[in-house]
Amino acid sequence: MKISVIGCGYLGAVHAAAMAKLGHDVIGVDTDPLKVERLSRGEAPFFEPGLPELLREGVASGRLRFTTEIADAGDARVHFLAVGTPQMADSDAADLRFVDAAVASLVPVIPDDAVVVGKSTVPVGTAASIAERIRAAGSGAEVAWNPEFLREGFAVADTLTPDRIVYGVPDGGRAVEVLDEVYAGPLATGIPRLVTDYATAELVKTAANAFLATKISFINAMAEIAEVVGADVTQLADAIGHDARIGRRFLNAGIGFGGGCLPKDIRAFSARAEELGRAESVAFLREVDAINLRRRERVVELATQVLGGSVYRKRIVVLGLTFKPDSDDVRDSPGLDIAARLHGLGALVAATDPQGIENARVRHPQLPYEADLDAALSDADLVILTTEWAEYRGLDPEHVGELVAGPTIIDGRNVLDPEAWRSAGFEYVGLGR
Ligand SMILES: NC(=O)c1ccc[n+]([C@@H]2O[C@H](COP(=O)([O-])OP(=O)(O)OC[C@H]3O[C@@H](n4cnc5c(N)ncnc54)[C@H](O)[C@@H]3O)[C@@H](O)[C@H]2O)c1
Ligand SMILES: O=c1ccn([C@@H]2O[C@H](COP(=O)(O)OP(=O)(O)O[C@H]3O[C@H](CO)[C@@H](O)[C@H](O)[C@H]3O)[C@@H](O)[C@H]2O)c(=O)[nH]1
């Protein structure tokens, strides 16, 4: 089937390449000419494991093309909307200007039998209002909402073999049939598919991210208590996680969640609930956000403590600037935020990351970056692990001990073996343990 994907960022580029892998004829549309140029050469414009191979394969097969011209996508049967929905600069609400612009550019170039499929994460009510706009413009194109649940770092596998596929569709339309054809490959393997209305589909996505964020803040709240009484939050998580009703996943306490999704999505949900007169229904999400942001302050507090009362002029190496490993994404990254806070307090920060330095530099040009890990560690008074990249988890404490000036490490993700670091002469500080 001929498919277009509008917006080729972390979500859209992967979706476009995955649709080509499923055998479809795909055109990706993005307003950023540099991104389109790189994608057209089969190169990934960001770091995502497995994506370069998929892009190269798709472009070489002739089934995957990219353009800046929306008109080039006019003859596609299905148009996936995958543009960004960031937080507004001056409020918690989602900024829908890219969605609005994408729809406005699309409507004049598509025929009446086209299906416009939203994948971006939007406030509940958006799909219905887009459908209304399309009708008002005199187009017969149908709108469906098909939220995306991929995780960065696992985006390719999550797209090709998702846990579930959700369609929000209008009654009596053709979208279900068309989407079943798009996803025939994954559906044939037995992946659950749920068909519902627009509002439910939009809320499924928002609710999923709200639940995940709540789970992380719950365990971080337990970490705050554990810190006071000398308990170990990782053992607590293991113990409660054995209860299948609770589950161990997403119970890793540490410096909290970041990224281009969970933080802005819970805030947008709160803002939308307020508009709907239901602020109190999700008031707990404000607390989830507050607990999460407190973890960053806590790390600065711990750094100050272990350095004898001040970080001023102390050499601190921050290991990890991306919001999670196996991604170059630094949007709302706790590690980068902590590095910037410490720098602001006069610490001599060495900020390092295997993939994120380039993006971090754009957001925080004032920070000193050091790409070489050993050079970053040299003469440090304090090491802080902020992103659990494999190379940081696998650090040899003896080797690090030879490089640093002061053997103290704050394990912001609780992923290191405290005993191994203590035996190498380090003061090991975990979060909530
Ligand atoms: N990143 C993820 O892991 C992920 C997962 C699930 C859902 N989402 C949701 O998907 C959406 C996109 O997120 P992202 O992380 O890919 O964002 P992104 O910023 O990486 O990508 C958005 C892309 O859209 C392009 N764009 C903006 N306006 C356009 C227009 N009018 N026409 C064509 N292209 C346009 C931008 O140039 C950019 O390349 C968001 O709603 C997000 O919440 C993201
Ligand atoms: O136990 C945990 C698990 C995660 N995190 C942090 O939470 C953040 C988000 O992690 P993750 O959810 O794996 O990353 P994303 O790629 O942002 O994916 C989330 O956001 C996407 C965009 O909406 C959704 O599609 C995914 O389903 C949802 O998991 C990261 O900073 C992690 O370090 C923790 O602190 N503790």
UniProtKB/TrEMBL annotation:
It holds the Pfam family UDPG_MGDP_dh. Pathway: Nucleotide-sugar biosynthesis; UDP-alpha-D-glucuronate biosynthesis; UDP-alpha-D-glucuronate from UDP-alpha-D-glucose: step 1/1. It catalyses: UDP-alpha-D-glucose + 2 NAD(+) + H2O = UDP-alpha-D-glucuronate + 2 NADH + 3 H(+). Keywords: NAD, Oxidoreductase. One of its GO terms (molecular function) is UDP-glucose 6-dehydrogenase activity. Residues 317-418 form the UDP-glucose/GDP-mannose dehydrogenase C-terminal domain. The active site is at C261 (nucleophile). One of its GO terms (biological process) is polysaccharide biosynthetic process. Its EC number is 1.1.1.22. Substrate binds at F149, L150, R151, E152, K205, F250, L251, N252, A253, G254, G258, K324. NCBIfam families: NDP-sugDHase (TIGR03026). Belongs to the UDP-glucose/GDP-mannose dehydrogenase family. This is UDP-glucose 6-dehydrogenase.
